[in-house]
Amino acid sequence: MKKTLAVLFVLFSSVAVFAQANNSVDTMPKIKFEKLEHDFAKIKEGTLATYGFVFTNTGKTPLILTNVQASCGCTTPEWPKEPIMPGAKGVIKAAYNSYGRPGQFLKTISVKSNAGADIVLSIKGEVIIATPEPVSPVRNPQ
User: Residue 136's pLDDT is what?
Assistant: First the structure.
């Protein structure tokens, strides 16, 4: 009798723990981006190229972005600090400073949140060297 009760107790406890674990996954916030990569194509050197990565909280609880970090100092991210409610949208802005950086580039932005796994966004393109303004061969006398 005691063994039967012990087995039933373990069985019901396991079911209760499993149900709680399943329920917590269903109630977590979920982050869904419209796109994970943006191609600026060709930009002129000296341009501050910016793009907004739009996302939606498709979960059932508020989404909190805990940290957004770029792979280098030439890219600056901006993100909402307040919680994003279920069904609401937000934007992570990435700004790439192309000054003194001719050639192709590929930069990443890591997004950490309470939705679970980190997400990596990326921006890419090619910086075209700015041609100097032509100098007049005629000088004005002073």
Answer: 62
